[in-house]
Write a structure and sequence with these properties.
- Helix content is about 15%, strand content about 25%.
- The protein is an alpha/beta fold.
- The chain folds into two domains: about 450 residues, TIM Barrel; about 180 residues, no CATH class.
- The strands form eight sheets. The protein has an eight-stranded parallel β-barrel with strand order 6-7-8-9-10-13-14-15, surrounded by four helices.
């Protein structure tokens, strides 16, 4: 969303501009009815001259992921061509009379619900989305909205009298139903804690800025359960633009209450395990850290930390990463003009080649690099620009070049915003569709909006379509600060090593790599797929009871070895020291021929380096793709921290 700086003391003014953002809408696709299986046929956007387009493939919920692609229940690619319908997270600027339109961003008062319901019937708004060629809508909400019991005003739903007397959440319900009945996918987006415009130093910088983390988690479980039976509600976008507040930065992996990696990991797991196993879990990178003053550290990390520390959810195939980009911000530019402005380049200052490289570094590498622990779809869930009144050459060039990059990367995307107000064709200008107080619509394809050609290129671009083959999964284990048990089968059982931090692969995967220090592990289903027997038999190994005579594969070292026909799925640690190995019984016979892979003095991994660097800066050992890990060796000699030194790798067959 468009960021609004807060003015106060010099420090507050600087920090208020730390993370400007403008949310963008996604391209919509026109519903052409449903087939007998309940799958919705879509039509791509009209061309710039308004001519109709041909039907696009049908889709069947729920959605999941295969490598870098989102797919529907039939395994066909479902590219998120989305837009943001904002308002339910708030438009109030934070000062002035809430009832006064002038106190709201760009003078647009949403009335605590999706914008525009005072000016146009919801059916007309949704029909407009389909004309744009989008197939999905990111629908922001605030935590305050979830608990707001005050009915919306009659005036705020003047064009939708059936919504009179409803609370903001009940209006949100009606909007979700209208969107999904039209065949559009809906992504729930927790945008703010409080119902007000985002994003600056405003009490909404983090998921727990104005509320306790457990409130945030409870609200998410409530929302995920609320729409569980509506299968076209396909995703949970956990929080918007995590950024610095006045005193503190968010972080990615430090284990404190500002740790966005840990909070989103836990929240994603809880939604999938306790509320709705069908939802995509969407995690946006960190939007801003530091103070925007030349000479002081400051940056927009986005998804760069993911390559060193990635999420592993309890249900594989549900993770999507996201990032936001606007022309006036930059990798180290807050987007401010004047107070808080630095000499760093904005995205619009880069050449086409420079922009390509920086977008790859900050986001697109996650989807581009195959068979890595971090490989996942990347959804650019916000981008946008002023419309008819934006005459800046750099701004217009940036938008067209950014669209080129979305097309070149076949990226999932969402424009900000879909809906706005206008009077006499003048207004905020960012929206693709705007209505005046008399209900007259101004649209992207009216013939006077310079964005139309680029938008049409984007929503009609040729990209990957059709069936996407299943991929082998690679997952990181990171019990850095707490348990990292990603197996639903093990979570249902009693604690198997009380007091230790436990790491377990997701169901269907096996442990294939370990780091010498840092407690990191690597899981995969490569070559073998699901190995664990349906009986669920497992064993915790604390000693050498399964090391038989003549099989001392690490002489002088303590060896935690699985019994015959069992394989490693996890481990536990106390501090840095290895505590136990977790073994699972195989459903089929496993090979017994083995070799020792030492990694106490350097990396020892297959040349392909599949899985990626799962323990950056640490020595790592990894079995081959056609092997399974059957044991871990360590030493307790003086000077050793009892960390893993070797893996016992056996042939799968």
């Amino acid at each position: 969303m468009v960021h609004r700086p807060l003015i106060g003391s010099v420090l507050a003014a600087l920090l208020a501009l730390v993370a400007p953002m403008v949310q963008e809408p996604h391209p919509a696709e026109r519903s052409a009815g449903a087939d007998s299986a309940g799958r919705t046929a879509l039509v791509t956007a009209g061309t710039a001259d308004g001519s109709a387009a041909e039907p696009a493939p049908i889709w069947t919920p729920p959605l999941s992921t295969r490598g870098r692609y989102i797919v529907d229940a039939t395994g066909h690619r479902f590219k998120l061509k989305s837009g943001n319908w904002h308002g339910a997270s708030g438009t109030w600027n934070g000062s002035g009379d809430v009832a006064d339109n002038a106190s709201h961003h760009a003078g647009e008062n949403s009335g605590r619900m999706p914008l525009g319901l005072d000016r146009a019937p919801v059916a007309d708004i949704v029909s407009g989305f389909r004309e744009l060629g989008i197939n999905s809508v990111r629908l922001p909400f605030s935590n305050e909205m979830v608990h707001d019991s005050e009915p919306v005003t009659d005036a705020s739903v003047a064009a939708n009298p059936g919504l009179r007397g409803r609370t903001p959440l009940q209006v949100y319900d009606a909007v979700v139903t209208a969107l999904t009945d039209a065949g559009l996918a809906v992504i729930l987006n927790n945008h703010t804690n409080t119902t007000r415009w985002c994003c600056a130093v405003d009490g909404n910088e983090r998921w727990n800025a104005s509320q306790a983390t457990d409130v945030w988690e409870t609200d998410w479980l409530f929302m995920a359960r609320r729409y569980k039976d509506n299968k076209r509600v396909v995703g949970a976008d956990l929080y918007n633009e995590v950024r610095r507040n006045v005193l503190d930065d968010p972080n990615w992996g430090l284990g404190d209450d500002h740790d966005w990696f840990a909070a989103s990991q836990r929240m994603g797991d809880r939604i999938l395990q306790e509320a709705n196993p069908d939802l995509l879990i969407i995690v946006e990178g960190i939007n801003w850290t530091g103070i925007p003053v030349d000479g002081l550290p400051h940056a927009r990390p986005t998804l760069e930390p993911v390559q060193r520390l990635s999420h592993t959810l309890v249900r594989s195939g549900k993770l999507v990463y996201s990032a936001h980009f606007y022309d006036y911000t930059g990798p180290h530019h807050s987007g401010a003009t004047g107070v808080g402005e630095t000499s760093d380049p904005r995205y619009r200052d880069f050449t086409s080649a420079e922009l390509r490289d920086v977008l790859y570094q900050q986001a697109f590498y996650v989807a581009d690099q195959k068979e890595r622990h971090f490989t996942a779809p990347v959804w650019i869930s916000e981008f946008g620009i002023g419309g008819r009144d934006e005459t800046g050459a750099k701004q217009q060039a940036w938008f067209k070049t950014f669209v080129d990059q979305l097309i070149a990367n076949d990226a999932d995307f969402a424009y900000w915003p879909l809906v706005g107000w206008h009077e006499n064709r003048k207004g905020n200008g960012w929206a693709l569709l705007s209505w005046d107080s008399a209900g007259r619509r101004m649209g992207l394809y009216d013939g006077d909006d310079w964005r139309a050609a680029a938008w049409t290129r984007l929503v009609t671009a040729t990209g990957r379509t059709g069936p996407v083959a299943p991929v082998r999964r690679w997952s990181m284990l990171s019990p850095d600060h707490a348990d990292f048990d990603q197996s639903l089968r093990m979570r249902a059982l009693p604690d198997w090593d009380s007091g230790a931090r436990k790491a377990v692969c997701p169901d269907g995967q096996r442990l294939i790599g370990l780091s010498h220090t840092g407690n990191r592990g690597l899981c995969t289903d490569v070559t073998a797929g699901e190995l664990w027997s349906t009986s669920g038999t497992h064993e915790v190994v604390f000693d050498e009871r399964y090391v038989t005579g003549g099989q001392d594969w690490a002489s002088g070292y303590t060896k935690l070895q699985c019994p015959a026909n069992a394989f490693l799925i996890g481990y536990s640690v106390r501090g840095a020291a290895l505590s136990a190995a977790l073994c699972a019984a195989s459903a089929t016979a496993l090979g017994a021929t083995g070799r020792t892979v030492w990694f106490d003095r350097g990396d020892n991994r297959p040349a392909t380096l599949k899985g990626g660097d799962f323990a950056y800066g640490q020595y790592k050992g990894q079995c081959a793709d056609d092997e399974y890990a059957a044991g871990i060796a360590y030493t307790g000699r003086v000077g050793s921290a009892k960390t893993p030194d070797a893996l016992y790798c056996r042939a799968l067959r």
